[in-house]
Design brief:
- The chain is of the alpha/beta class.
- 39% of the residues lie in helices and 17% in strands.
- It contains 13 helices and eight strands.
- The protein has an eight-stranded mixed beta sheet, with helices on both faces.
- Strand 7, helix 10 and strand 8 form a beta-alpha-beta unit.
- Helix 1 crosses helix 13.
- The radius of gyration is 17 Å and the shape is globular.
- The chain starts with 8 loop residues before the first strand and ends with a helix.
């Protein structure tokens, strides 16, 4: 029986700097929300396929990416995304896979009317049916038309920021970009998530101090430390809590899920 909820909250993970931990955060938050009993749909919006690879082995991901049941074909043909959902092995957790052809999506969108709202229209049925509590979208590290699509389809934005000398590079541009889209999207910044923390170095403290200077957005209390278990989990195509529940990062993603649940 279809579950009915008050609303479906759509959250995108975006940062125009690569290596910030977007896909890792999106995947593991999605798993933790589903483990907490929420119904979650993940959308892999990046040609690198990392979100898909967290839940399926490489052979399966490449097969989905090379076929027609993926996000690229849905967007190009303006199809209802309900028909592109792939269940994972985890209860309450589904995925719409990506394709390496997503590198061409900017060109495809350029020829479409109201091109900034194609994803929002493709998601209309899923959101209207309210089967999912959360839709989490992994955006590529760009600031083009496709990311505008993702933002226009989202209610909230989480910005992962790496605790490193270059982690904050371009963050001001990211927020300027969001401000410029205020007439197109109602998406609000849910918060900044500090990732890849190594407390043996000063970068974490420096990053926190700099982020405190931005009064207009929230910084999550949860932060994600450097943890080799994350890489091993990715290699095994599993969320980190499934790979090794006792690891530090698994506890941190669970804490992040608790913070996000407060927004529902």
């Amino acid at each position: 029986m279809m579950r009915k909820h008050r609303s479906t909250m759509t959250i995108c993970f975006t940062n125009n700097k690569g290596g910030s931990g977007k896909s890792t955060s999106c995947a593991n938050l999605g798993y933790e929300l589903s483990a907490a009993g929420r119904k979650v749909l993940l959308i892999d919006g990046d040609m690198q396929l990392n979100l898909s690879l967290t839940f399926f082995d490489e052979e399966k991901v490449l097969k989905m990416a090379g076929g027609e049941k993926n996000l690229y074909h849905a967007i190009c043909n303006k199809k209802d995304l309900k028909d592109y959902i792939v269940p994972t092995v985890y209860e309450n957790l589904d995925l719409i896979p990506s394709s390496t052809l997503m590198s061409q999506v900017e060109y495809e969108l350029f020829t479409m009317m109201q091109r900034e709202f194609i994803l929002k229209k493709c998601l209309h049925t899923i959101k209207e049916e309210k089967e999912y509590d959360y839709i989490l979208i992994d955006a590529p590290p760009t600031l083009g038309t496709w990311v505008i699509n993702i933002l226009c389809a989202s209610d909230y934005v989480i910005v992962p920021v790496e605790a490193s000398p270059w982690g904050l590079f371009g963050l001001a541009n990211m927020f300027d970009f969001l401000n410029e889209l205020q007439d197109m999207t109602d998406a609000q910044i849910m918060g900044v998530l500090i990732t890849k923390v190594d407390e043996r170095k000063n970068y974490f403290r420096q990053t926190k101090e700099i982020l405190k200077g931005y009064k207009e957005f929230h910084v999550f209390d949860s932060c994600i430390h450097v943890d080799s278990s994350i890489e091993w989990a990715q290699d095994a195509s599993k969320p980190v809590a499934v790979y090794k529940k006792s690891t530090r990062s698994a506890a941190e993603f669970k804490m992040l899920a608790k913070e996000v649940l407060l927004w529902q």
